[in-house]
Prior knowledge:
Elements: E1 3-7, H1 17-26, E2 28-31, H2 43-61, E3 64-68, H3 72-78, E4 85-90, H4 94-97, E5 109-112, H5 115-124, E6 132-134, E7 155-159, H6 168-180, E8 186-190, H7 197-209, E9 216-220, H8 225-230, E10 234-237, H9 246-253, E11 257-261, E12 275-276, H10 279-291, H11 294-311, H12 314-332
Parallel strand pairs: 1-2, 1-3, 3-4, 4-5, 5-6, 7-8, 7-10, 8-9, 10-11, 11-12
Helix pairs in contact: 1-12, 6-7, 6-10, 9-11
Amino acid sequence: MTRLGVFVGEDMWQFFQEIYDNLALHYQTEVYQRKTYNTPLLYGRLNRWAFREGIRSMLSSNDTCFFEWAGELLMVASHMPKRCAVVTRLHSFELYEWAPKINWDAVDKVILLSRAMQQQFGDLYPAHAHKAEVIFNGVPLDKFSPPIERNFSFKLGMLCNILPIKRVYEAVLMLYNLKVEGYDAHLYIAGKPGGDLRYAAAIHRLVDKLELGESVIFDGYVTDSPTWLQKIDVFISNSFWEGQQVALLEAMATGCYCLSHFWDGAEEVLPAENLYVTEAQLREKIVRYYEASEAQRQEQRAQMRAIACEKFDIAQIASQILQVIEEAMGSAGW
């Protein structure tokens, strides 16, 4: 049976488990596990050796190696002697943080999450643009499904880590303007603070200063996101950068009405009428949805679910990734 080495990273499986389960049905898989030693005198040197030796061993003992995230593990592996076919999935942040450090000559296929990301990769690495394949993110449609009944109650939602890139602060200001205009809207924020903690503190202070304590609800880190999404009427993706936001795809699959800022690639996820540029446009689209008839809202929610089923079914995505790995193995001659 063909051997497949899989590199993920201990805390980075959140978008990959279903894909791995499918790969394990077709290959003899080996998952990279980082070994560490606590020997006091040689701690640093020994662990650096163990880190590199573990990667080298995986490259030598497998026919193909798949790197979920084009990050540190791929960077190290790409500068070792090539002994197998190499496929990676580049999500988003890696494009500027890690990609410049990777030897792309050693990589046979690069999976990008959108045509927008493919364009950016090609612009940065034109000699390797032919290696790029576009495969969207996916969600398990049986897990993320609409509730039996969803009665509109003006619940807006954001599911994301509280980081500047997600522009939660601006969403709170948008909600404030809705309240000033007389709309009884609520904003539910599911996620934990990350990075510079001043950002999360500033958002909480903003809520206090605008007296929005009863209208902005911080749900913290949510473990049951399918259930959380079922209570949301309108899901907002307000980021200025995304590879392809999984939370947005999950919201669509759950039948939320979804609106997104026009970050590069958002047009590949949502119809043009669901995209906005300015805060005023976002408010206008939310109000238009609020004032629509229930039949019209049901139709728009059904459209979100239909798009998710057509384009973002994790079972189809897993099969597409499997095909790219097969192609890489054949073209590399391994």
